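User: I'm writing a tutorial on reading structure tokens. Could you give me a worked example: one chain, its sequence, then its tokens, then a sentence or two explaining what the tokens reveal?
Assistant: Sure. Here is the example chain.
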Amino acid sequence: MDVFVADYAGFCSGVARAVKKAEIAPKPVASLGPLIHNPQVVEKLAAQGVRPVASLEEVEEGRILIRSHGVPPQVLEQARAKGLEIIDATCPFVRRAQELAQELASQGLEIIIVGDPEHAEVRGLVEWAQGKAKVISSAAEVENLPQSSRRAVIVQTTQPQETLQAVVAALLPKTAELWVYNTICEATRRRQEAAVRLARQVDIMVVVGGRNSANTRHLAELCRNTGTPTYHVEKAGELRSEWFAGAQKVGVTGGASTPAWIIEEVVKMLQHLSESIKEPKTPEVGVERAEALLSKPNGEARDTTPAVAHEISQYDGEFRQDEVPTAGEQPGIEMSSHPEEAERIFRLRRGSVIVGTVVQVRDNEVLVDVGGKSEGVIPLTELSYRPFNHPSEVVAVGQEIHVMVLRPENEDGHPLLSKKRADRRIAWDRLEAAFTNGEELRGEVVGVVKGGLLVDVGVRGFVPASLIERGFVEDLHAYLGKTLRLKVIELDRAKNKLVLSQRAILDEEFEKQRQATWESLEPGQVRKGIVRRLTNFGAFIDLGGVDGLLHVSEISWGRVEHPQDVLQEGQEIEVKVLGVDREEGRVSLGRKQLLPNPWNTARERYPVGTVVQGKVLRLAPFGAFVEVEPGIEGLVHISQLADHRVEKPEEVVAVGQVIPVKVLKVDQEAQRMSLSLRQALQDKPKGNPDSSEKPSKEDGSGVKLGELFGDLFGANNQD
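And here are its predicted structure tokens:
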């Protein structure tokens, strides 16, 4: 039985942010309601001093933690009035929906909230909308609404996209003007799509998460709708072996409130069940997660849990908090009655990070002044985790550096210090802050491994190949030595696990650029764009996050067989905006409008009686259309093809053939031109000696004009 874990399973960024805020908040702290819809996580946080409360009436002083679902504005006002310190862990997507509800209510719009009316997030949104909003959970409920002139729609962040689309479709006939704001969390959409995609490929689907989590319930419902048997469990102990009898492939996903460790336990239990069922195969990591697996430097496979296969770096011996003894517990050190000595001993306790000044750089060690009677010593092995040839490449005399105390005194009475471990601890603190606040980092690519890149951000982090760029990356080695812009998307300090993404930043910037472009696009504008893709019917031009279609007929005034004859992918060109359809997301463009129209001077350049060379473009029952220059073509009527009666134009000319034609009439306004092959062959051309040449076919058929026109080339023939 093979086990496949869906992409994006588990904590979303908003939930992870809330849990992190709870973990680092000074304790005790009261959480206004369960922090997330997962009883196991809530129980774990309660053991750490995060106490859930039903209302502010239970909290008289101290700190109050606002969960990711957010709260009504009056709750925040009440907390401030009581003097409570507010730790706001409201999900950024929920915050955006709250701000929209408040703004739309102030504009007097009737607000429709698509979501579960009993959900904490939705109840809060109703209050942010000044209590004026109506909550709709399905399209069927729209039938009870009256006609309205102006409505605005916002949606619970964890609702399925299909529910929003169905409600909007039902509202359109009942609303004269409808504004729709899609506030569904992008991570929710990706998680649901990945789960549905996996459910269609497996025999059994397991959805892990709290039963009180609307997000997880929706996830299970979407999986069931694929027709695949789906089981919703909160923890591994609920799995039953009879569910998987005869199953070859089992898929696993988790709701936004499900931590990775619970998903890991489910995967391990499925492995155990697979062995007990005695399937011929052993469970393995699904292809959706396989790219995250790394190998040891010597090529030996790591023993990793399938659901969390990111391995960043080995534990370097940094002291954990529970291993750091207090000053009085230091072996061989007694507290002195002299304040200065006591302070020095406290500063030099094992595991503390202090600031010192480099006083000497030797070949085998670095001496640092950290106060006291003697300098501290940094062995070369504790100077930096980056390779170096000499310690002078890392530090210089007089430089202030952070160091960690490994031992207050070595055999020679000097404090034993580590710069690399201090740097590592400081880096983790900075990374945790960046994770919580969504800050951008920069890191140098220091290695290429299976499935991604290793980057240096103070500690070693992993960037999966799929999160490097917005598109597919073919050569990972091209990034070695380059600096990437990164965001932390997964962090576990205890396991030294750090997963980063450059694509998250690029996606965010692309979306901002796309939105700005849509807002500014208007018909008639002239814009620069990049040719992104060529097709038979035209070219797609990137205008800055928005692709517009330049139809083949709008590329040039002349006939263009294929866009690749004129344009190249990656080329920058100027185009004119011909039309904008924001509802359908379409933009039509033109290029020939920015080029001189050859018809504007056609009368002057082709006076009546002129004989010119032209190329037969196409044939019709009534004649042949001939191009005299790109963008200008005229009609040789069937009566003007030869002196004798012609039944069909193909009896005289063929497509692609170059022939002489005489200009009979030019209608510059209507962009029409009448031409004659018969008269061009009879009359000697004026002012264009080359035009007297006999027409010849370009297709190499070998047909000669003498064979076609006989004695028409005689000098005495007349019209």
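What the tokens reveal: The mean pLDDT is 81. The longest strand covers residues 483-492.
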